[in-house]
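Q: Convert this sequence to structure tokens.
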Amino acid sequence: MCDPVAMITGGTALLSAAMGAAQQAIGVTQQLQRAAGQRNDYNFLAAQQRNAAAVDEMRAQQDEQAGEAAADGARQKAGQRLGQLQARLAAQGTDLLGSPLDILGDAAAAGAGDALSLRYDGLRNAWENRVRGASRQAQARYYETAAGNVDPTLGIVKTLLS
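A:
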């Protein structure tokens, strides 16, 4: 016949082994869930950066358009001012040679300078947005790489070895 103490001890050992296996299974499941969550977090961050880069590109295009529109407005304003000066000089009976011609040339040059300055500002703002967008694209690639490097099996192996 079997010794009751030996049966209890054997049963306890069997139960302890089963509990250990169950704990390892729970640990493996938790590790898989953590890895999936981490991968999802990285993919979410990558998507955020890509969206922000798209917004930066849209802003860059808007800045270019705004710069061109402002430059056109400055050219039109300069043309109107030049026309007013010519009309004023002509109304006074001034010959449009020499000093009056210099005044007209200076007015035209100032208008062209204003237009170029406004266009440059638009292009500079667009460039800043594109640089920001490129940085965000690089950050998105980093997050995608990090998501691809999440390896749940490494944690499982560590859990099983411990």
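Helices lie at 4-91, 99-149, 152-161.
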